[in-house]
Structures are given as C-alpha cells and as structure tokens.
Task: structure prediction
Amino acid sequence: MNDDVQKYVFGAILAFLVVVGGFVFFLFLNACDFTFTCRRGDHLVNRTPVPTLIPATMPAATQSGEAGQVPTSDQCRVSAVNFVGAWVNAGASDKEAFQFTDVNGQTCESSFEEVQPLFVQSNYWYSGSLACASCHAADVTISPAQLDLSSYEGILAGSRRESADVKKGTDILGKGNWTSSLLYQYVSANQTDIPGHNALMTDVLIYVGRPLAPTATETPTATAVVPTPTP
Result:
C-alpha cells in the first residue's frame, strides 16, 4: 500500500514540475515572438525615424560654390556658356590650350579637360542638373537628336547619326563660330519643351582655368644728362 502511495506522490510531483516547466517555456516563447533567438534583452539601437540613404539614381548633392563647385583661390570665374564658346572659337581642340576672358576682365587659360565636365558631370550647370551625356550617350540609336556628348569624338561627330559607325553627322559647333552653332542655341535659351534644356544657362558661372601672368614690360633706362659748360 505504501508503495502505491509513493507512486502517486512522485507522479503528482513530476506532473506538477512538467506543467510548471511547460508554462515557463510557453512564457519564454511568447516573450520572444515564439522564436528561439530572443534578442529582447539587447541594448536598444538609436535609429533615425526617416531614411537617410539617397537612391543611387539621384544626382549627387552639391556642397558649395557656384554650379556645385568649390573654387580654389587661383581659378578664374567665367560664364559657363562663354567658356564653352571660347573653346569652340579657339578650334575645339582636345589637346591644345585655349584662352578666355573671365568676369573680372583678366585673360585666363584652360583646356578641354575642364570643358568636358560640362557635358558629362551631374550638378555642374546647377544643383540637381543631370549630365548632358546621361541623355545624349554613346548609343546614338536611342539618344535624343542621335547625339553623343559623352566623348570628344562624339561631340565632333555631331548629331543626326543613324549609328556610331557614321563618323560625321550635323555639326553642332558652328564650324568654329560659337554664336551660330546649334549647341549655343540649346544652352543660351530656354527650351521649355525639351527635358534638361528648360533652365536658363547663360547666368551660370563656373570656376575654371588659371589667369595668365601679365607680360613683363621693359623698364626704361635713365639717360644721364650732362650739363653744357657755360663759356
């Protein structure tokens, strides 16, 4: 009889422990969203309530300077339209330096290396502006006006080319005369019906080139005057 009592007692205790353990286990899973990787005891991480990442497709934000530039002390300040015009009027070379006059009237010098960013760099004409080459790219079969502004060769090849194999299309540089060129027409006036051309470009100032050192002038030599002796 005593053995039966002991069995009942031990069975009751074991059942109680199983029920208590199961209840505690249930509370643990419930507190951890019914997962075994509970991290609710970790320190909270401070996070901003709004996204801070800019989509890669958006133009990079500019920081300071006109046309998104941070000038150096020895650069010249000039209208972007006039700067491109000086390059065109000088022969539109990709190797030879050319001269231009800045807003202060001083003569400056630059090269195509500083002209090209105006065609291929975003935010250059103004904050938020897309690069010209983002639309007028190398694949002229889908490029607006069949024009490639992504390279020097593409600029010289001109517009209205059926394919990249066509090396010469419609000249956009006015045969070296800037004010009569197609390119000047599109950057000097608003084209409200054409995306990317609906902002006034003539007021955009950029920092480029270097001022030329003034030409040294010869210092006149003094001539000694010998007095004429009186008789």
Summary: Strands lie at 76-79, 98-101, 107-110, 205-208, 210-211. The CA atoms of residues 48 and 54 lie 14 Å apart. Residues 8-38 form one domain. Helices lie at 2-31, 80-89, 112-115, 117-120, 132-135, 152-157, 182-187.
